[in-house]
């Protein structure tokens, strides 16, 4: 059975999306990006909400841009090789290969997908992840914690959720970004 992983960059105060501005990520650092590449290369399927998909579809065409560094091109190859499922009631079509639209997030369908998958899956974006967390589907949480406090926005963990997690891996990068991987106890 494959794992469902929820992973996002988050501010020091726990926001995956800032109300204003960016999260001060540090993720564009080649060391961090190479780590992310290696971490997610084995992922076979990405589960996205519409907004996250519209952000990530950049990776479908970045290889055509001049002078892109090798770590960027590698991530793009890995992303294009994976399946993508976009949950949206408004998106009419997709602009990437290996991508399909689902109109509703069905926890039982995701359970079946996990059971049948040969490679891990990720759920990306705080809104979609909140549904997966509420359904008890998330097997690992990967946080990339920036050095910024942003004061508001969309939280990494949804309000009202209570989880008892165990830290299984951590790493600090030269930029101050912290990677922390947790599993439910």
Automatic annotation (TrEMBL):
Alphabetized Pfam families for the sequence: RibD_C
InterPro entries: DHFR-like_dom_sf, RibDG_C, Riboflavin_Biosynth_HTPR
SUPFAM superfamilies in alphabetical order: Dihydrofolate reductase-like
Gene Ontology terms describing biological process: riboflavin biosynthetic process
Ranges for domain Bacterial bifunctional deaminase-reductase C-terminal: 3-178
An example molecular function term from Gene Ontology annotations: 5-amino-6-(5-phosphoribosylamino)uracil reductase activity
Gene3D superfamilies registered for this protein in UniProt: Dihydrofolate Reductase, subunit A (3.40.430.10)
Protein's name according to its UniProt entry: Deaminase
Organism: Streptomyces pilosus
Source organism phylogeny: Bacteria, Bacillati, Actinomycetota, Actinomycetes, Kitasatosporales
């Amino acid at each position: 059975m494959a794992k469902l992983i929820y992973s996002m960059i988050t501010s020091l105060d726990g926001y995956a999306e800032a109300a204003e501005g960016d999260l001060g990520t540090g993720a564009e650092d080649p060391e961090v990006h190479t780590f992310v590449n290696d971490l997610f290369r084995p992922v076979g399927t990405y589960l996205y909400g519409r907004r996250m998909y519209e952000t990530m579809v950049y990776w479908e065409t970045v290889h055509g841009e001049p002078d892109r560094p090798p770590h960027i091109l590698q991530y793009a190859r890995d992303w294009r090789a994976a399946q993508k499922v976009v949950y949206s009631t408004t998106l009419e079509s997709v602009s990437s290969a290996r991508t399909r639209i689902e109109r509703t997030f069905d926890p039982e369908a995701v359970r079946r997908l996990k059971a049948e998958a040969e490679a891990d899956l990720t759920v990306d974006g705080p809104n979609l992840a909140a549904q997966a967390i509420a359904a008890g589907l998330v097997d690992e949480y990967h946080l990339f914690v920036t050095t910024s406090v942003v004061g508001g926005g969309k939280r990494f963990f949804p309000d009202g959720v209570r989880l008892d997690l165990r830290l299984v891996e951590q790493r600090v990068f030269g930029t101050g970004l912290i990677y922390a991987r947790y599993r439910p106890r």
